[in-house]
Known about the structure:
Layout: E1 14-16, E2 26-27, E3 42-44, H1 50-53, E4 58-62, E5 69-73, H2 97-101, E6 104-107, E7 115-119, E8 125-126, E9 131-132, H3 142-170, E10 174-183, E11 189-197, H4 199-203, H5 207-215, H6 218-228, E12 239-246
Antiparallel strand pairs: 1-7, 2-8, 2-9, 3-5, 4-5, 6-7, 10-11, 10-12
Amino acid sequence: MALIVQNPLFYQNVVPLNRDAHRDLRLKPLDRPLDYARESSLIPALIDEFGAAANELAIAFLPGTGEPAAVFITGIKPGKNLVISEDGLWSGAYVPAYLRRYPFIVGDVPDSEPILCIDDAYPGFTRDDGWRLFSASGEAEPSTVQALELAINYRAAADRTRAFSARLQELGLFRAVTLAVEMAGEHSATVHGLLAVDEQSFDALPDDVIVELHRAGYLKLIFAHILSLRAVSKLTSKISDIKILKSA
């Protein structure tokens, strides 16, 4: 069986979940469950999350070789996630789906159905403590079935997110942004290298394109993204002023 999957952010060693090899595998809650994401100032985002997260997490886009990738801004300096507490817990009300999916992920097998995989480097996997992934007879436990459903739904939402970003890129709506942050008692910090929808370019779109975006459900996503940028100020109580500067 040839598994096709790359190790994305946080995943170290993705392997197929196998009812024989992993019959006795268990997953236990960790005391500091999100320590693995402590150094990530950007977390992948899905368009399905824009509405629920926009009031709390700023949404931007990261340029790449193809369409820009939607991300939640979780820090103002590289290597520091400000939404994860010192106890390794998420301090906000909305937890991104990317974190809720981990350490599971869907992998593709040529000419076969997608299969559930795990990051077997995750320290929560044990053989003697926690909830079982399979029953003694090899049947998937309900929690494992739920993990598969979440992983499949995540991938479908990721495909929709890429289509959304690709269409906005085709329309020339993205512009580079710089977040200039003035913090009390510290030097100012700037966040470079991100993209956001340029409101002037959006306002200049012809009516037929606006109708198209509305029918695709994209208008509300664009508005949620623009409004979410205000949430950067919620990252830390030390922020006294924030400015969003758009470059041509």
